[in-house]
Amino acid sequence: MFRKIAISAVSALSLFAGAAFGMEHGVVTDESFSFEGPFGSYDKQQLQRGLQVYTEVCSACHGLNMVPIRTLGDEGGPQLPEDQVRAYAAAFTVTDKDTGEDRPGLPVDLFPANTGAGAPDLSLMAKARAGFHGPYGLGLNQLFKGMGGPEYIVSLLNGYTGQEKEEAGSTFYENPVFSTGWIKMPPPLADGQVTFADGAPNDVKSMAEDVAAFMMWTAEPKLNARKDTGFKAVLFLIVLSSLLYLTNKRLWAGIKGKKLA
After folding, report:
1. Which position among 20, 42, 193, 244 has the lowest Cβ density within 10 Å, counted as fewest Cβ atoms?
2. pLDDT digit string (tens) for 188-247?
3. Is the peptide bond before 135 cis (omega within 30 degrees of 0)?
4. What is the mean pLDDT of residues 257-261?
């Protein structure tokens, strides 16, 4: 009996450790992004490709109404030249708040909202979605792998099985990554749908990774600056702690060195 209990305990511990240190939650797979880790940073070329995928595909249904267009030229982001940022903004039609008239967009404007299809805004989507969970609500996967928002987006865009069903007058598409297993959004990407100027791969997986990286930037545009500041702060604390230790040692040297009679 004790042997069975011991075996059961070992099995449970193995499952727990597997869930904590490597097993994927559901069908969300871990991806390697350049911005991961304490020294990671955004890949400018990948962000530019992700912007292109968003513009040519995603913007038909989704908006980015929390993102200023001018940030497309910021350091640490897509870093588009100033003339390209102006041209990109001018492609949008914006209703002027003062006059109430439509005008071409300006870099100071936000990306326009898009609510016509009832689709959610994507500004914070990469931070709002969690790809990794568990085990048992402890969140250890998130501790070791992060929230997994970009991974969730990549897996979702690659998760369509090709199966469809009609329900309540609407068409649903099978996607195991989605919470219910069926999603109303049809597969948005197809191989070769977008052609990149740098000749980068344009299969569904590659485009999904590019647009997921871009959406991560829209959700956290100051990631590079934050990591740089954090690294400098850690170095400062290390130097300060060393100085405090040496100072303390010097101040107490005369007392600690005496032996009690």
Report:
1. 244
2. 999 999 999 999 999 999 999 999 999 999 999 998 888 888 889 999 999 999 999 999
3. yes
4. 57
Q: Are 35 and 83 in contact (CB under 8 A)?
A: no
Distance CA 4, CA 72 (A): 61
pLDDT score of 216: 93
Helices (H) and strands (E) in the chain, counts: 9, 5
Q: What share of the chain is helix, strand, coil (3-state, %, to 5)?
A: 45, 5, 45
pLDDT digits (tens, 9 = 90+) for 43-63: 999 999 999 999 999 999 999
Kindly report, residue by residue over 159-194, the tens digit of the pLDDT. Answer: 999 999 999 889 999 999 998 899 999 999 999 999
Q: What is the C-alpha separation between 50 and 206, in angstroms, rounded?
A: 10
3-state secondary structure of 75: coil
How are beta strands 170-174 and 164-167 bridged, if at all?
A: antiparallel
Closest listed residue to residue 114, CA positions, set 123, 102, 103: 123
Distances (CA, A) of 29 to 23, 80, 176, 214, 254: 9, 31, 12, 18, 60
pLDDT tens-digit readout, 18-28: 333 333 334 78
8 Å CB contact between 36 and 145: no
Single pTM value for the model? 0.79
Alpha-carbon distance of 230 to 217, in angstroms, equals 18
